[in-house]
Structure formats: structure tokens, C-alpha cells
Amino acid sequence: MSDSIWIDIAEKIKALAPEKELLPLHEPTFTGNELNYVTDCIKTGWVSSVGKYVDEFEKMLAEFTGVKRAVAVVNGTAALHIALKIAGVQPNDEVLIPSLTFVATGNAVTYCGAIPHFVDISRSTLGLDPFKLEDYLRDITEFKNNQCVNKNTGRIIRAVVPMHTFGHPVDIDPLLDVCKKYNIVIVEDAAESLGSYYKGIHTGNFGKVSAMSFNGNKIITTGGGGAILTNDEKLADYAKHLTTTAKVPHRWRYEHDDIGYNYRMPNLNAALGCAQLENLNNFIENKRNQVANYNTIIKDYQGINLFQEPSFAKSNYWLQTFIIDQSIYSLDIVIQTLNSTGVISRPIWTPLHKLKPFETSPKGDLMITNELEHQVVNIPSSPYLGEHIR
Ligand SMILES: *Cc1c(COP(=O)(O)O)cnc(C)c1O
Question: How many A from CA of 72 to the centre of ligand 1?
Fold first, then answer.
């Protein structure tokens, strides 16, 4: 019975873009100056590690988000790595992260020599639950030399990484309160939330440092790419320095005053990014229109909800999300049925605490995480699906 329902739903989804045989989860849209700017790089020879588009892209990002500075890098994972490092994360620290996130969040913590410590999320945001976090910290931590220390492991809990799942902002205000109380630094994983606002302020403004991604499936793409965002000028300069091999500026001498990283974004990718940013507001509008389209499709079925932005947020709706009732539908069958009809759909990530590299990481109670793992279905979300409200 539930099979035929999902075949019906797939047909209705396909009717949102009748010209397409297959609806990918999220495909890039190149309808602006992409070809012009990339061609300009090739014609002028400025394709690589320096060039005007990198500077321009950083400026445009800062302007759009309202964050003082943006530093463009090769991908979102590299952005997170450096964001954590310059926020002060040191080897053997613990960093609180949601277990329901892309693996890059956990990997970046590990690149710093630190240990991810998994905490639960909230049903209303799909991101870190600041109230549950506070209760947990009260139980398991103590202060030593003004540092919040995990009583069970003896390690300093240095930072927390709120991740704005599918573009929906975490409830930041109470998180800021908790972090102030426990002297924990915030590093935002804003990889999915370009164009998303918390109480009118763009995500990426709340952390000491934040990270974004412009991978091929994100709301804008540079092919591959990321950015480090911060309102602290000194940290921005440091981020730029570390991601460009820590070279001391000189016309010809190779002098490096730190172990740096070759993480800079090539000019070619930044050129693509500039063109994409020019269209970002358009993408967001289309993606917000999809909410009406998908709600119309599911309104006659029981036990299927479209995830809506939290009341305090304006979301970019990067990936549209069904939350299904497990007592009516089986996640595997739903995903299999949708995919077999050309409506590419995915479950949420396997929670990180269940992955082999993080088996021994500390964790709190993860009840909501473990429930949502079996209830989330991401459905096609490319901007064109909201071009017309059906
Ligand atoms: C995409 C993503 C990243 C990493 O970005 P890449 O550019 O693919 O390295 C990190 N965190 C989250 C939550 C993401 O969705």
C-alpha cells in the first residue's frame, strides 16, 4: 500500500519539472555570468592561485553575509579545519558537535588533533539543542583554571560546532548563553546555510569563526570551494596567511613563518563563485517557493511532513526534507521507490557516532538523533523546482 502512495508522490514531484527525466537531489544552475567570468580567467591566463576574482568573491561574500571578512579556500572541509584551528582548538581538546552532520565536521576536528564529542539535536531545528546541551554540561563538566573540563576524560571542552542542517539555523541565542557560561568557543559550520538568517542576522556571524562550502551540490557552487568567515580582522588575516602556505610577503623570496597549508581557492573557481553569488537571491526565492509546491503534493497523505524553517529563522531551504512517520512507512522502501522512479532521494547521514573512525568518541544522550536517522528523506531541491508555484 505504502509503495503505491510513493509512486503517486514521485509522479507529482516530477510534474514540477516535466521537461526533466531525472530529478537529481541538487544540481547547479548556470544562467548568469558564469561562462563570461571563467572565460575571462582563461583568456587572461589568471586561472590559479591569485587573481581579481578571489578578492572579488571574498568581498561579495562579506557583503552578502554581513560578516566583516571572508577568506576563500579550496573546500568547506579545509575551511572548517582552519576555522577550528584559529578559534583555538588544540590537540587533545574535545569539540562538541552534532552526530547528525556530514562527516567533514568530525574529520576537521580530528585534523586539529582534537576529539569530537557528540551531542543531540532538536526536532524543531534539526541542529544542536542548546537546552539539552546545557543540562549535559552541568552533569559532566567541571571548571579547572577557568576551562570547562570533561570530568570523565579530563580533557578540555574547547569549542562547539553548531551546524545549520539543510540551511535551517540552530537556535543561536540560548547557545550563546550556554557557551558564555561554560567558556566554550563557537565555530559555526555554515556549509549549508548561505542565505539563511537567524532573527534577521545571517548565519556565520555568531561564531568566533565560521565555515562555508561551495561544493557542487550546495546552494551556490565554485566547483569545489569554501570560505572562512569572521568578524575579527586579525583572525581573518591569520586565516589568509595560514591558507596561503604562511608565506611572508616579498616580491621573490620564499620565506614562511609557520607551518601553512595550500588551501587557497584558485581564481578559476572564484570566477564561477562571483557569477553564482549574483544569482543567489534568485536561487533562494525559488527554493522558498518549493515549500508551497511540496506542501501541496503531500497534503492528502498521512504521516508525511515537509520540514519548515524554525519560527526565528529565514532559511535558504537548501535541501527539502520530508519527515516520515515510521509506523506507517519504511524509510528504505520510500527511498528505493523514489529513486527507482527518477526522483533522487537520500536518507540523512549515518550519525557520526556510528561510524568506525568515531567509535570511541565521547557522546551524550542521542535519542533524537537516533530517531531522526530513520525519519528523514531529502528530496530533489534544485532551484528550478520552485520557478513556478504549481
Ligand atoms: C558540504 C559540507 C561540508 C564540507 O564541505 P566540502 O566543500 O564538501 O568540503 C561540511 N559540513 C557540512 C555540514 C556540509 O554539508
Answer: 14
